[in-house]
Design brief:
Blueprint (H helix, E strand, L loop, with lengths): L1 H24 L27 H27 L1
Keywords: Membrane, Transmembrane, Transmembrane helix
Length: about 80
């Protein structure tokens, strides 16, 4: 009986130490307060909320056009 209690208590302590260790290290520091120059009373997201959706669409279109040109040139070279 004593051996079972000892094993159970050691296992419980190890589980608690492992659980609290990951919980504590997963917490980041709070964000800094806003500076006086940006005109907002709350914290702003990183990057200032810049829209990147249209830039991604533009780049995908350019990549597709470049790939189509490379395929066209390769096809023309095979036909010669």
């Amino acid at each position: 009986m004593k051996k079972t209690v000892k094993i159970l208590s050691v296992t419980l302590m190890l589980a608690l130490f492992a659980g609290f260790g990951t919980f504590v290290s997963a917490q980041g520091p709070p964000p800094p307060p806003p500076s006086g120059g940006h005109g907002q009373t709350t914290n702003q997201p990183a990057g200032g909320g810049a829209p990147i959706g249209s830039a991604v669409t533009l780049m995908l279109g350019l990549f597709a056009a470049y790939g189509a040109k490379k395929a066209w040139d390769a096809r023309q070279k095979l036909d010669e």
